[in-house]
Design goal:
- Chain B: It holds the Pfam family Ketoacyl-synt_C.
- The complex is a heterodimer of chains A (about 375) and B (about 400).
- With about 375 residues, chain A is an alpha/beta fold.
- Chain A is about 35% helix and about 20% strand.
- Chain A folds into two domains: about 5-235, Peroxisomal Thiolase, Chain A, domain 1 (3-Layer(aba) Sandwich); about 240-360, 3-Layer(aba) Sandwich (Peroxisomal Thiolase, Chain A, domain 1), CATH 3.40.47.10.
- In chain A, strands 1, 2, 5, 6, 7, 8, 9, 10, 11, 12 and 13 form an eleven-stranded mixed beta sheet that branches.
- Chain A starts with a strand and ends in a 9-residue tail after the last strand.
- Chain B has two domains: about 5-240, Thiolase/Chalcone synthase (Peroxisomal Thiolase, Chain A, domain 1, 3-Layer(aba) Sandwich); about 250-395, 3-Layer(aba) Sandwich (Peroxisomal Thiolase, Chain A, domain 1), CATH 3.40.47.10.
- In chain B, a hairpin with a 5-residue loop joins strand 14 and strand 15 (about 390-395).
- The longest helix of chain B has 17 residues, at about 70-85.
- Chain B is globular, with a radius of gyration of 19 Å.
- Classes of the chains: A alpha/beta (about 375), B alpha/beta (about 400).
Chain lengths: ~375, ~400
């Protein structure tokens, strides 16, 4: 694939709704004020494995979207739709009838809303009549619910793909979306990932040990992607270039996955025509300094040790959405990107899936294309 | 642009496992519908589904340990193993990183999700089995294929509901045509589950005994399951190794209704057909057969027929629904459709719509009722539509 540009974006994180909230939290963290999540309070009646997490405690889709059409949204869907609205607005996309068939949606997840499917199943097991389930909520049990509702809300009629990638979710999305643009299926993709905080996810991450070192979190991150020469309706500023994305698999995990990850790093450098020395920052899925499951193979592939940013320390374990949060942090930070100014986003899954993307942030939002 | 061909198919279905059994079942119009055994259907007024009751993962899997993977992943990996065998492909001869696994699904490891829900009800959230929780993420479907076949290329699971396999085959087409792959295993998998059975019933979209697409008295779907994987290669790669080429993958089209979560829209579906034709370089008059989405619900079959007539005119090509035999295999459905389309081209017959009794004058299509029909099939349109308004259509052609 050739590269794509980000013409606008938004993120919903435990910092709040939107880019400014994210930037504010990063500034606080820079000043040494790191939080390990917030009190979850009475968000759910069910017991939780911990009292705090990286949660949008007061989030209400209606506050941002109004009542119409939102009554059946589950939490994932609400996060995704609000985030998409913000991203389209940030990019300045004009949504007319000519543009809509040329705009796609590609959304990453682990398995959609486990709460929606599990609650639905529960009804079939505890009701006297097992079929007394709510038909209005049935669409929430399929994994593409959020992407479908995003399309419905904004009338986006191009490719509408939901990518179940788990930890790899967002890199899978960038790869798939880049292909869809490159091959001419659409001109623009609203690409992102979402993961909700529910008792189901909190317990799943807790019981599988995923959150031993970091609190569970929720987030959505959506990015308006277009070709460099895309018409003006796609947004007039270039915030960043996603120059190349590569994903691969190392059967059996372990060494094969490390080799595959190093291979992805080499491939994105080659595709982008970049030199390893230009990479100044890597955004990885690790949490602790001595965990080098991603950083190790990256350093070997690059031949030097760029600065490592571990966004889960600030925003929790957001699974498929963690990569989207990482790109948000990359774009929001007032970081001196150094000579070359290239960044890598990487991910490594529980089986053998790995991936890398190479990104260049344009200072001050890039050239005005108007 | 490289040309893309189908060199192997791996169906794991209620009407047969492997190409020989599956093709024979299509030719004879065999039904795979039976009383549900994978969950306790007591209390449900309707109790039939298309379960793969003879499935024995141990008979197919060499590297993937069934104990560590959910049923849908087992279907995916088994179907991939069958596709490799059918393609007579020695994977050690493919350059590392040039072979990929792209799988579609609606509900991923739905049986695992249900088992965990039963544990939550019995013992609370803390009572869930961590080993089961590790089987839950849906990306494991493609990973199971990559593990089983030892693939080091992309491993991607597309969860675009009931059009997901066509999405997967379409993305595979792009990888191959664009020079980023030599071989791709693409298709889909899903498992029969209690929640889908209940949900379709409450939508009024579940048939009692049999699925009767395009019939005047059609009453809805029956849920089904299985794994469907195609071995896709560039024509150059296939020719170089002397492979048998079943069919050519001509291209695909995708779009989204963006109107309603469950109710399909005929004009957008028609537009998706036009996109698929345009991307494949064919015109409607080239199409000999449409492998329908054909769920058997009153609205789907009406909308699909309307779209077909809008695109093809008053005398459209024959359109049959293999869901009449398999039930609705959800994320695997388009994969089975692509396999049936391949077999139709290779073996020269149209699979029938079984259980058909009464014409519906409102539809105006030829559903190939009840008996397979000999035909010289040069171009097939394989339809897929999904919740969320996600349309995906794949075009297959006879090899040249």
């Amino acid at each position: 694939m050739s590269g794509v540009v980000v013409t606008g974006w938004s993120a919903l994180t435990s910092a709040g709704v939107g880019v400014d909230a994210l930037a504010k939290k990063l500034a606080l963290a820079e000043a040494g004020q790191v939080e390990k999540g917030q009190e979850i309070g009475d968000l759910y009646e069910e017991p939780l494995p911990a009292a705090s997490g990286h949660v949008l405690t007061s989030f209400s889709p209606r506050e941002h979207l109004g009542r119409k059409g939102t009554s059946t949204y589950d939490r994932s869907t609400g996060l995704a739709v609000v985030c998409c609205q913000e991203a389209l607005r940030e990019a300045g996309v004009s949504l007319d009838d000519e543009a809509r068939p040329r705009i796609g949606v590609v959304l990453g997840t682990s398995l959609g809303s486990f709460k929606s499917t599990s609650d639905y199943t529960r009804e079939t097991l505890v009701q006297d009549k097992p079929y007394l389930v709510n038909p209005m909520l049935f669409p929430n049990t399929v994994m593409n619910c959020a992407a479908g509702q995003v399309a419905i809300r904004f009338g986006l009629r191009g490719v509408n793909a939901t990518i179940a990638g788990g930890t790899l979710g967002f890199l899978n999305v960038l790869r798939y979306a880049g292909n869809a643009i490159d091959r001419g299926h659409v001109d623009v993709v609203v690409a992102g990932a979402v993961e909700e905080f529910t008792p189901h996810r909190a317990w799943a991450t807790h019981l599988t040990g995923a959150t031993d070192v970091v609190a569970p979190g929720e987030a959505a991150g959506m990015f308006v992607l277009a070709k460099e020469n895309t018409p003006e309706w796609a947004g007039t500023r270039q915030r960043a270039g996603v120059l190349a994305v590569a994903t691969a698999y190392g059967p059996g995990g372990g060494d094969a996955a490390e080799t595959a990850l190093a291979g992805c790093v080499s491939r994105v450098l080659a595709k982008a025509g970049a030199d390893a020395a230009e990479v100044s920052t890597v955004y990885t899925g690790e949490v602790e300094d001595d965990d080098r499951r991603e950083y190790g193979p990256i350093v070997r592939a690059l031949g030097h040790s760029p600065e490592r940013v571990m966004v889960k320390r600030l925003f929790g374990e957001c699974d498929a959405a963690s990569g989207a949060v990482a790109l948000g942090v990359l774009l929001a930070e007032e970081r001196d990107s150094g000579p070359g100014g290239l960044s890598l986003l990487t991910a490594r899954g529980a089986d053998g899936a790995v991936g890398a993307a190479i990104v260049r942030r344009y200072a001050d939002g890039g050239p005005d294309r108007g | 642009m490289a040309r893309v061909v189908v060199t192997g198919v791996g169906p794991v279905s209620s009407i047969g496992i492997g190409i020989a059994a599956f093709a024979e079942a299509l030719r004879t119009g065999r039904s795979g519908i039976s009383p549900i055994t994978s969950f306790d259907p007591a209390g449900f007024p309707h109790r039939n589904a298309g379960e793969v009751q003879t499935f024995d993962p141990g008979a197919h899997l060499r590297r993937v340990d069934p104990a560590r993977w959910g049923r849908s992943s087992q279907f995916a990996a088994s179907a991939a193993q069958l596709a490799v065998a059918d393609a007579r492909l020695d994977l050690t001869s493919v350059a590392p990183g040039r072979a990929h696994a792209i799988m579609g699904t609606t509900s991923g490891e739905s049986a695992v999700a249900e088992a965990l829900t039963a544990q939550i009800i019995a013992d609370g959230f803390a009572g869930q089995d961590p080993a089961l929780l590790t089987q839950l993420p849906a990306n494991r479907l493609a990973n199971a294929v990559s593990e089983e076949l030892g693939l080091s290329g992309e491993s991607l699971t597309i969860a675009t509901a009931c059009s997901a396999s066509n999405y997967a085959i379409g993305y595979a087409y792009d990888l191959l045509a664009g020079g980023e792959a030599d071989v791709v295993f693409a298709g889909g998998a899903d498992s029969v589950c209690r929640w889908a059975h209940a949900g379709f019933f409450r939508l009024g979209a579940l048939a009692k005994d049999a699925c009767t697409p395009f019939d005047k008295d059609r009453a809805g779907i029956l849920t089904g399951e299985g794994g469907a994987v195609l071995a896709l290669e560039t024509m150059e790669h296939a020719r170089k190794r002397g492979a048998t080429i079943y069919a050519e993958l001509l291209g695909y089209g995708v779009n989204c209704d963006a109107i309603h979560p469950v109710s399909p829209d005929a004009p957008t579906v028609a537009e998706c057909m036009r996109i698929a034709h345009r991307n494949s370089g064919i015109s409607p008059s080239d199409v000999d057969y449409i492998c329908a989405h054909g769920t058997g619900t009153p609205v789907n079959d009406l909308v699909e027929s309307k779209a077909v007539i809008e695109v093809f005119g008053e005398r459209p090509p024959p359109i049959s629904s293999i869901k009449s035999m398999l039930g609705h295999t959800m994320g695997a459905a388009c994969g089975f459709g692509a396999i049936a389309s391949t077999i139709a081209i290779d073996r020269g017959f149209l699979p029938p719509t079984v259980n058909w009794t009464t014409a519906d004058p409102e539809l105006g299509v030829d559903p190939v009722p009840n008996a397979a029909r000999p035909a010289n099939v040069r171009v097939v349109q394989n339809d897929g539509f999904a919740f969320g308004g996600n349309n995906a259509i794949v075009m297959l052609g006879a090899p040249e």
